[in-house]
Amino acid sequence: MTWETVIGLETHVELATATKIFCGCTTEFGGDPNTHCCPVCTGMPGTLPVLNEAVLEFAVKAGLALNCAVTRCCRFDRKNYFYPDLPKAYQISQLYLPICHDGAVDIRTAAGAKTIRIHELHMEEDAGKLVHDPWIDQTRADYNRCGVPLIEIVTEPDFRSADEVVAYLEKLRSTLQYLGVSDCKMQEGSLRCDVNLSVRPAGAPALGTRTEMKNLNSFKAIARSIQYEARRQIERLEDGKRVVQETRRWDENKDATFAMRSKENAQDYRYFPEPDIPPLELSEAYLDRLKAQQPEMAEARMARYQADYGLPAYDTQMITAQKALADFFERAVALGAPAKQVSNWIMGEVMGQLSARGLEARDMVFSPAALARLIALVQEGKLNRNTAVKVFEAVFEHDEDVDAYVQKHGLEQVSDAGLVGCVAEEVFAANPKSIEDYKAGKEKAFGFLVGQVMRQLKGQADPAVVRRVLRMKLEQN
């Protein structure tokens, strides 16, 4: 039997506001346990929440960018459950009237283009975090994260593969970063994904029994967990067993999912309207203002770079994948560096250094001005490309002054034909056989002689000058 995997996503995104959703505590990541919290976000009796206006703006901007309809009159609801990381024993969320609904995101994979429908986008507060310490056999609660603002983006069950899920999440991350509403740092929990997955016979109209895999925070983990869980469910069904609706966790070390608890339904949370926060009524003028603030997104930049700079589609796709890279590109070009040269450096050396150091583009201290200067030095003949790469690698981490580094280490390119000629005579004297081979028509011998001159000059000679001088002297010999 042929089986079909059906997947829906619930993606939690921490918003990049300076303070929490209902109080003035900082949202800064880290800090000593229980130092970023107050009576409001820890649920002390008698406290009242006050909505952070920036949270509403960020949620609406995200909804507009994801092609959602905006609910003109929305409200918050209480989601009741008991867990040690939730001091109030309820979470303020949105169930009945979410801020945005009925959106769509277009993705592309090797299988082609596809539209993923978004069921809703709602605002809510994050819970705290339980820290399990095996050395002392204790679990402790850190409430710093309580009240950090979230948007939860819920899709329809439109995915059929791990590739589609990853493509959607990459598109979602790029969109939110371009908007500036979240840094989407998965390693810090700013973007977390719950995967709802079921399998069914191919072509069957009814959905199978689903499981939910919680809080996956890397593309690799998401892809591997989907592949494992689909295989596990298929094997159970083919063995005549049934799939149990439950919440499961992904164990990275064991490369498997494990049952955590039975899956809750909405009625289990006993939702009711939040009595301490009045409904929100959004005017057309308010929405028009936020629409006017929407930035140029990745697709628009790709089209502009191809039209304005003549860059290939592949280059523009790579550059615009991260907003910080696209901004870096634009600033370097604005400083006079040729667009294609900047593109080549970004896709090669810059992205290589970021990967090697485990950095994202937004964390890079190397400046567009430094890259523009390096490119200029190569164009002016003061550095050859290989030396420029070495300078780049040396100054990348601390963004040192390029000219000062070149001068300090004596790296400026040798373009003096007289000096090159003297070195060439020394190379000829040491390699008479190579001269004979060249005169016999063996072009490889010329390449060898060029290499010897370059080595004598420590790689700092202008290759064009070296080749010209060698040809001239070999003709004279």
UniProtKB/TrEMBL annotation:
Sequence ranges assigned to domain Asn/Gln amidotransferase in this UniProt record: 327-474
Entry keywords, A to Z: ATP-binding, Ligase, Nucleotide-binding, Protein biosynthesis
Pfam families assigned to the protein according to its UniProt record, in alphabetical order: GatB_N (PF02934), GatB_Yqey (PF02637)
One Gene Ontology biological process: translation
UniProt cross-references to InterPro entries, sorted A to Z: Asn/Gln-tRNA_amidoTrfase_suB/E, Asn/Gln-tRNA_Trfase_suB/E_cat, Asn/Gln_amidotransferase, Asn/Gln_tRNA_amidoTrase-B-like, GatB, GatB_C_1, GatB_Yqey_C_2, Gln-tRNA_amidoTrfase_suB_CS
GO MF annotation terms: ATP binding; glutaminyl-tRNA synthase (glutamine-hydrolyzing) activity
Substrates-to-products reaction catalysed: L-glutamyl-tRNA(Gln) + L-glutamine + ATP + H2O = L-glutaminyl-tRNA(Gln) + L-glutamate + ADP + phosphate + H(+); L-aspartyl-tRNA(Asn) + L-glutamine + ATP + H2O = L-asparaginyl-tRNA(Asn) + L-glutamate + ADP + phosphate + 2 H(+)
Superkingdom of origin organism: Bacteria
EC number: 6.3.5.-
The keyword Ligase is assigned to this record: yes
Protein family according to the UniProt entry: Belongs to the GatB/GatE family. GatB subfamily.
HAMAP family reported for this sequence: GatB (MF_00121)
Subunit structure: Heterotrimer of A, B and C subunits.
Function, in words: Allows the formation of correctly charged Asn-tRNA(Asn) or Gln-tRNA(Gln) through the transamidation of misacylated Asp-tRNA(Asn) or Glu-tRNA(Gln) in organisms which lack either or both of asparaginyl-tRNA or glutaminyl-tRNA synthetases. The reaction takes place in the presence of glutamine and ATP through an activated phospho-Asp-tRNA(Asn) or phospho-Glu-tRNA(Gln).
Name assigned to this protein: Aspartyl/glutamyl-tRNA(Asn/Gln) amidotransferase subunit B
Recorded name of the encoding gene: gatB
